[in-house]
Amino acid sequence: AYKPFAGVKEDIRKMQFTSSELMEKMNEIIWAMNEKNDTLEDLLFYSRNYAVRYCEENNLTCAVSLPDHIRKMPVSSELRRNVFLIFKESLHNIVKHSGAKKVSIAIQTEINLEVTIEDNGKGVLDAQNVISGNGLLNMQKRIISMNGNFRYFNNHGFTILFSVPLE
């Protein structure tokens, strides 16, 4: 029998998903451009909230460790944008490639902003040759552009470490 509305429900579901994605990206852009969000604390809380929400949506346990005391200081929009995008890309890679069930994020802010993102997934078979894929090259370029350091390695899963100067 002919069903004139056979694909309509699926089309509506796809439009809802696309609309949600678009709204999320717009909110990220607005946050990144808003000068009221220019402190280190704002960056860290926003990134933590994003990580926890993204992991929950993808059935991952997420533990985020922040310093007890976060210096009250402004950070550049470049640093805010780059650090947030590294969080986002790292989590995307974990969901897409790792098979992990748990993500741990540790943040220190004593001299530099130092971030460790670890998962308990399968790691990367050849960590030295993977830099051209999975967004690692872009992450490395972002950190180097801010005079920072970027490393990654297998360690009962995969670990990304980066640090950038805060002043």
Q: Nutshell version of this structure?
A:
This protein has 167 residues and is an alpha+beta fold. The protein is 46% helix and 20% strand.
Describe this structure in words.
With 167 residues, the protein is α+β, with helices and mostly antiparallel strands. The chain contains four helices and five strands; from the N terminus they run ααβαββαββ. It has helices spanning 8-33, 40-57, 77-98, 136-145, and strands at 61-65, 102-108, 112-119, 149-154, 158-165. A five-stranded mixed β-sheet has the order 1-2-3-5-4, with helices on one face. The chain is globular.
Write the layout of secondary structure elements.
Elements: H1 8-33, H2 40-57, E1 61-65, H3 77-98, E2 102-108, E3 112-119, H4 136-145, E4 149-154, E5 158-165
Parallel strand pairs: 1-2
Antiparallel strand pairs: 2-3, 3-5, 4-5
